[in-house]
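Sequence in, structure out.
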Amino acid sequence: PLPPTIESYIADKLATPINRALVDDLTDYEAQGLETEAIRYAVDIALNAGSPTWRFTRAVIRDWLAKGVKTLDAAKAAQKQHDAAKAKSAQSRAAPTYNGREFKYD
């Protein structure tokens, strides 16, 4: 069987109806050279983040385009960098530990 169209993938995965604005966004992303598989990956990121909306997905895509990301491989690399930066930021916000004599900051 053929893979679903990007529109049907979005409608199936996100809490978003297919409307003119969404189709216009997709047309614009295609014109900018963004691969369809990268858009699917952005949808998957939104789902995994607990934000299954087109608004969240569009924000991910716009960030990628601003960074020149257009392929699935580049999108995966950008997401890996994003996840690493997010983990580092969370670690730096961790509360210090106290060992009975002093506070330890990790």
